[in-house]
Amino acid sequence: MSANTFPVESLRDRKRRQTRERIVETAFALFMERGFDAVTVDEIAEQAEIGRTTFFRYFGDKQEVVFSTEDDFLHALTAAMGDAPAEPLRDLAQVLAASRRLLLAICTEAARNPGHYAVYHRLVRQHPELEDRHTRKTRHYADLLENHLTGHGTPPATAVLAAQLTLACYQAAWRLGGHDATAVLREASDAFDLLLGATAV
Amino acid sequence: MSANTFPVESLRDRKRRQTRERIVETAFALFMERGFDAVTVDEIAEQAEIGRTTFFRYFGDKQEVVFSTEDDFLHALTAAMGDAPAEPLRDLAQVLAASRRLLLAICTEAARNPGHYAVYHRLVRQHPELEDRHTRKTRHYADLLENHLTGHGTPPATAVLAAQLTLACYQAAWRLGGHDATAVLREASDAFDLLLGATAV
Question: What is the CATH number of domain A69-199?
Fold first, then answer.
């Protein structure tokens, strides 16, 4: 690939990103206005001024639009994992302190777009099939954390438990913070404070 | 209702229980033999020597048979909740010690029928739709625990967190114990020891 092709690629990427964002914003506005079930892919495409075929180049179905920020969360998590200390974390309290940092990185990412988060939270709470998918997604994050910890020398039983406890802090924050992303970030931090406060020796 | 009607009722109840058990045992044996997807309701009914209509008097569908022990778990949980101390639990470590007892009551109930649990565990692990339902069920137990704690004077934020941490200990045990119900009971106890050990002041 020659240097000249880069700007062209970049422009295409930018256009792709903008189209993707327009689809998501349009869909979320329609979901809020008329409810998830009532909105069709055709309506989203029409309002976003794209063709139906274009929609399906970006998203497999309407449900996938709801989970469009998954890549951003994974990116935030992976970036935070990259800053992990070199020495292995063996003690549960130590491991939890490290896990806290990773969870807050994801919650901080979510709080960057509070309007989007508020709609996401409402959609997930109102639709069992979306809640199932949200739950599977959070389980996947816990798996990633568990693998990250065992990969860094944490004993398996401690890594499994720490990953689940971190998920528990997030679930508590999800319940207590409601659709307010900033409150969720604060509650996640408070949950870890409560847990680590109780764990302080 | 006269006293005379009781023996008749009791006999009917016993027959119902036995039929229900036969359906579950037959279905679980067939699931193990040929896999959940390949087994039909008609086959279960035929092998259990009942009619298709009778099957549907006991279970809404094939999936419901997998979750047939839910009532036993709820009964074990409710019974253990009845033994709760009168004074309110405010401190997280205290609340966790009480929650531990409730979780172990459910795990002990599961360990009463290890063969059934082993098949249940395999089915849930192999079928995403069963795993979703299992997850919803465990979330429901966490909700019950949260309500129990707030009803007994635990501050809401502590109750929410304690319920999720208890669920986390169960999830860790589920992962570490595999399809061995006795191992799950032990791992649940160990997870709480690790958590409460770290929380011991």
Answer: 1.10.357
